[in-house]
């Protein structure tokens, strides 16, 4: 093998390592940090007497909104008091009518036209009276004792945001749902490592909470969960993961819906990044390392994978000839084609993951071109049937 082929193989390897770093070497490095500096690990303190306001934004959520309100009322019974705030964003499927039947038990704000989730959260957060704002999605079921457990984490004065532990309940429903669930298990593991070594790099919108005095108005077109939680970090507070604050949701089983959802989320996340990065990069080397590893590199995973493929094929061509490189491409194409009709579990997971990276890349590209997502449409495939959720 000549020097040119060696360099090309090296470039392919480096590109692949960068692409895989957020999912492999990054969590391993956090594991080492946790072992090396165990004093960073902070355990949950005894329960603290704090008040909660739970905030829910809904568009067309008629199939699940009644179950969501009943779930919130159960949380209230466990706590003794819980303010329930719901914003409806121009729904036209009967969501508003269902919620009006609970008018005496919730604080309801209805917009006749679509204004977006950021607008809705800003509206209802201004009406909140609790010490802690709990933000959650309309299709998420929260374990009845979750908020009692959450209060323990706010005992620590340096904790400004607490992330819940989300479990997807429809593993195996489709290949897309299975891949999404596997990815989320990895994500929860990484978040716990981040929490144990200082702070998580952002919350997930399914269930998280912030101190009310740390809430900042959310700009339109951003990922509200990422923006709001990382603003807490910028204020000098920690974001921690709470494994005993459990929530349940169905992973999107429809590949096309999941692709569109990933595009929207990554576009909004990158817009958030451009607003937050000037402040985040001043928070210290460890925070910058975590943020770049967990967030920034993931958005460009598809780019580094493309570099790895191009450099790898060029290296094979240089070392073994064009025919071998073409054969490698054809073999990969045939495997993917066969998997489309005769599902091969490992291949299916890899292909679905690649499509997820492509969707993320498309979202970032749209953000760079100036496209913005100001409203959201819930994935219908995870709202048609809530029977998988805990009762």
Protein model, in words:
It is a single chain. The chain is of the alpha/beta class and 391 residues long. It has a domain at 40-257: Spore Coat Polysaccharide Biosynthesis Protein SpsA, Chain A (Alpha-Beta Complex), CATH 3.90.550.10. The chain is 53% helix and 14% strand. The chain has 13 helices and 8 strands. The chain has helices spanning 3-20, 25-36, 65-79, 95-100, 117-125, 146-153, 175-196, 224-234, 255-280, 285-299, 301-320, 322-341, 345-368, and strands at residues 52-58, 83-89, 107-111, 132-136, 141-142, 159-168, 207-211, 238-249. Helix 4 (95-100) links the parallel strand 2 and strand 3. The mean pLDDT is 90.
Please list the strands of the largest sheet in the order they lie side by side: 3-2-1-4-7-6-8-5
Number-wise, the strands total: 8
Question: Roughly how much helix do the residues carry, as a percent range?
Answer: 40-55%
Q: Within the CATH hierarchy, at the fold level, what is the topology of one domain? A: Spore Coat Polysaccharide Biosynthesis Protein SpsA, Chain A
Largest sheet: 8 strands, mixed
CATH architectural designation of one domain: Alpha-Beta Complex
Task: Estimate the strand proportion.
Answer: 5-15%
Distance N to C terminus: 63 Å
Structural class assignment: alpha/beta
Poorly predicted ranges: none
List the helices and strands in order: HHEHEHEHEEHEHEHEHHHHH
At the fourth level of CATH, the homologous superfamily of one domain is: Spore Coat Polysaccharide Biosynthesis Protein SpsA, Chain A
Specify the number of helices.
13
Rounded Rg: 22 Å
So what's the overall shape?
Answer: globular
Question: Could you report the average pLDDT, rounded to the nearest whole number?
Answer: 90
The CATH C-level class name of one domain: Alpha Beta
